[in-house]
Specification:
Length: 334
């Protein structure tokens, strides 16, 4: 259960087409992440799958059955939103049990499912509390709990962590990944945070203006981006993209080299530059290098204890076999 197929799906708001014809298959049990810049259509696509928006044309199939005209409540999918609308006057237990009560399950069946969900989500000790007495992360887990008990064919998450602080985001990211490992239910997860995408996904769908730019595993996208857009989007800090004569030497319109694939030396190397801002993260240092004549800034990753100062002249050496080449059409050249 939980295979979802989009077949030439389009969406127009008035005259504006936000999703041009789009084909995508999400396999049973997969963790798929939709990423892309703000406004590219991630939420729209998720809402189309959920049935919260009607497609303008095309077909959505769930487990092989045409679901295009099926209302959201009958699709067997659970949507977890960024703002987790819990009932403030109800305990955690009642919040999680709510959909089961609505479905008319017996008290015993409700209890059994609530306890199972609470155990998976580490909420067993909080069942009698009200949402107001919980942290943001705990509330998020209650919202997920309310979806789990319905045993959906797939979970749909729209930026569920964006209200949380950085540390909690990392925690919840791991928890959702663990949840996926234990439930093995299809999950579709929308984010514009490419670190979330890289760490959580089996498959990443990179969107731009409603178009799928590339679909693939995190490392596939990192190692072989199909075009300059994906090259610049996946990876943090971003891949350095260089045009002009340096690219022409490699028979390309654009060459790309990631910050981690450039060596830095005070005495020798291929490109000469000057250190601008340095970001010392402890484990790594990112140097922003200027005056190379290649691009405004070349970002380089070095070890944690490299001592170079603002204004120092340095030399950079790209690893030849880690260089990406792109043509005038922006597409990768192999
Ligand atoms: N109900 C609507 N009516 C008209 N236009 C809409 C509607 N909903 C979304 N849009 C437009 O569709 C496009 C895609 O919006 P969507 O919310 O899917 O983007 P997104 O990728 O989720 O962005 P974000 O990362 O900011 O959440 C945007 O240009 C948006 O303005
Ligand atoms: Mg959105």
């Amino acid at each position: 259960m939980g295979q979802i197929t989009l077949d030439k799906v389009t969406k127009k708001f008035g005259d504006v087409q936000v999703i041009p014809p789009l084909d995508l298959t999400i396999e049973e049990g997969e963790f798929v992440v939709f990423v892309g810049p703000s406004g590219c259509g991630k939420s729209t696509l998720l809402r189309l799958i959920a049935g919260l928006e009607d497609v303008s044309s095309g077909q959505i199939r769930i487990d092989g059955k045409d679901a295009t005209a099926i209302p959201p409540s009958k699709r067997g999918l659970a949507m977890v939103f960024q703002s987790y609308a819990l009932y403030p006057h109800m305990s955690v237990r009642k919040n999680i049990a709510f959909p089961l009560r609505m479905a008319g399950l017996s008290k015993e069946e409700q209890d059994k499912k609530v306890m199972a969900a609470a155990s998976v989500l580490n909420l067993t000790d909080y069942l009698e509390r009200k949402p107001g007495q919980l942290s943001g992360g705990q509330r998020q887990r209650v919202a997920i709990g309310r979806s789990i008990v319905r045993e959906p064919a797939a979970f749909l998450f729209d930026e569920p962590l964006s209200n949380l602080d950085a540390a909690l985001r990392v925690n919840m990211r791991l928890e959702i990944s663990e949840l996926h490992n234990s439930l093995k239910t299809t999950m579709i997860y929308v984010t514009h945070d490419q670190v979330e995408a890289m760490t959580m996904a089996d498959k990443i769908v990179v969107l731009r203006a409603g178009n799928i730019e590339q679909v693939g595993g995190p490392l596939e996208l990192y190692q072989r981006p199909r075009n300059t857009f994906v090259a610049g989007f996946i990876g943090s800090p971003k891949m350095n993209l260089i045009e002009g004569t340096e690219a022409a030497k490699h028979n390309a319109k654009t060459i790309g080299i990631r910050p981690e694939h450039i060596g830095i030396s005070p005495t020798e190397g291929t490109w000469k530059g000057r250190i601008g801002v340095s970001e010392h993260l402890g484990s790594d240092t990112f140097f922003h290098v200027h005056d190379t004549g290649l691009a405004d800034t070349i970002t380089v990753r070095a070890g944690g204890e490299v001592n170079l100062r603002h204004g120092n002249t340095i030399y950079l050496t790209p690893e030849a076999d880690k260089m990406h080449r792109f043509g005038a059409d922006g597409l990768r050249i192999d």
